[in-house]
Design brief:
This protein is of the alpha/beta class. The protein has 25 helices and nine strands. Among the domains are: about 100 residues, Alpha-helical ferredoxin (Fumarate Reductase Iron-sulfur Protein, Chain B, domain 2, Orthogonal Bundle), CATH 1.10.1060; about 110 residues, Rossmann fold (3-Layer(aba) Sandwich). The chain is about 55% helix and about 10% strand. The protein binds iron/sulfur cluster (2 copies). The site of one iron/sulfur cluster has 14 residues, from helix 4.
Length: about 425
């Protein structure tokens, strides 16, 4: 794609990254059929190619972007299906993130939108506030529903009750059973540890059983992905720096083989920490060290000796790929191979893989689009369930679980919960 940046614009590191990507895009359109928003809305401006072009115009022109451009950028899920499909290596992930940051710095959103964005980033990423907010939402659900569509939608995603944690997920360590094979730090996630503590509990039991000693460092914070994908770059960098310091301290004191994430969105962001600090001489090397040893939990489990599975009847399960795992981290085989090895039979969802509409905070902001995407996905899953005795819907991300569970008649669970059950843990429930 040809560009018309001025030499002054080309001096900016952000423009250099954007221009590099624009030059790679050859307009082939291979990314269009895989894009969920293009598939639903049928508008080129809601396709990867259309967004790339609109963002180019926005940056070349400079100044405040039009509300039309903002609308189409806001509608992007950051599912990264377009990156997987692109034969030219366009780095859409960073392209759209820089565009969001530019919009955040130059565009005046309506006050109500700004307030809502501030509310969700503040509440979800702060565990104490999140627990209070969820508890209040459960108690005052009927009253809160009258506060408009967005609050109503938010309240509908809240679980009926909060589950009490059985294991501490704050400043704790858990020794490997038998000989220690590896020592790892586990990221407890921010929404996940409150909405479904059983995921961390299953991860800890499973990793311990397979020879891993686990540390959940004191002061480990939200990874910053939620802020970053909403364009709030400065808040995201503050969170990333704080986590990098905590984790480097852990590496340099007792050593770490891996930093493990069991929430696909957080894992993708940590693996990408180094690119946030490309122009930061203090944090570049440290962030590279963190990204280098960050793994999704299924990547690490695949390298450890598996205990014998206690599952004998080979339960049928449906596996849904979380976009951040499939496209963000290119992990498709590891969870499937583990589930098969531990005795489960996987039924694949037919047709193109599309995002379920969760996408971080997308389902809280783009309510109608997220709802359409959810039903695209759950309708396919429900027709599989109707015709076969499937016992679980399985996925690797709390966002997908929260988005789909209420529309599925069987338990929607995390991969590690099933693997833990197969090796001696409790049977997961919805
Ligand atoms: S990230 Fe997903 S929604 Fe956004 S343009 Fe790419 S495929 Fe479409
Ligand atoms: S597939 Fe890649 S090169 Fe082709 S239009 Fe999409 S972004 Fe551009």
């Amino acid at each position: 794609m040809k560009t018309k940046f001025t030499s002054e614009q080309r001096d900016q590191p952000m423009i250099q990254i954007m221009e590099d990507n624009l030059r790679k895009c050859v307009h082939c359109g291979f990314c269009l059929p895989v894009c969920p928003t293009y598939s639903i809305l049928g508008d080129e401006r809601d396709s990867p190619r259309g967004r790339i072009y609109s963002i180019k115009n926005m940056l070349e022109k400079g100044g405040e972007p039009s509300s039309q451009i903002v609308k189409h950028v806001d509608r992007c899920l950051s599912c990264l299906a377009c990156m997987t499909a692109c034969p030219s290596g366009v780095d859409y992930q960073h392209y759209i993130d820089h565009a969001r940051s530019y919009i955040d710095n130059t565009h005046r959103r309506p006050l109500i939108d700004k307030l809502f964005r501030w509310l969700i980033t503040t509440v979800i990423t702060n565990q104490r506030i999140f627990v209070v907010a969820i508890t209040a939402s459960i108690i005052f659900k009927p009253i809160l529903k009258i506060f408009g569509k967005k609050i109503n939608n938010l309240v509908n995603l809240v679980p009926r009750q909060l589950t009490k944690k059985k294991i501490s997920d704050h400043d704790a360590s858990f020794m490997a059973e038998g000989k220690e094979v590896i020592r790892v730090a586990l990221l407890p996630g921010c929404a996940q540890r409150t909405l479904r503590p059983s995921i961390n509990e299953a991860s800890i039991r499973l990793l311990n059983r397979m020879g891993a000693t686990i540390i959940i460092p004191k002061n480990i914070n939200c990874c910053g992905a939620i802020n970053y994908h909403l364009g709030a770059e400065s808040a995201a960098l503050t969170k990333a720096r704080s986590n990098i310091d905590v984790l480097i301290n852990e590496i340099e004191s007792d050593g770490l083989n891996y930093i493990i994430s069991n929430s696909a969105g957080c894992g993708t962001h940590l693996k990408d920490y180094f690119s946030l600090f490309k122009n930061d001489p203090i944090y570049l090397e440290k962030s590279e060290r963190i990204s280098r040893i960050t793994r999704d939990i299924t990547e690490v489990l695949s390298t450890l000796r598996a205990p014998n599975s206690k599952i004998s009847e080979e339960p049928l399960i449906v596996y849904h790929d979380a976009c951040s795992l499939l496209h963000g981290q290119k992990i498709k085989k590891a969870p499937r191979a583990l589930l098969k090895k531990f005795g489960f039979q996987i039924i694949e969802i037919p047709g193109n893989h599309f995002c379920c509409g969760s996408a971080g905070t997308f389902n809280l902001i783009q309510i109608d689009l997220a709802r359409k995407l959810k039903f695209e996905r759950v309708n396919k899953i429900n027709s599989l369930i109707k015709n076969q005795s499937i016992q679980f819907l399985v996925t690797g991300n709390i966002g997908c679980i929260t988005q789909m569970a209420s529309e599925i008649s069987i338990p929607t669970v995390h991969t590690v919960e099933l693997l833990d059950w197969a090796t001696g843990g409790p049977r997961p429930i919805s």
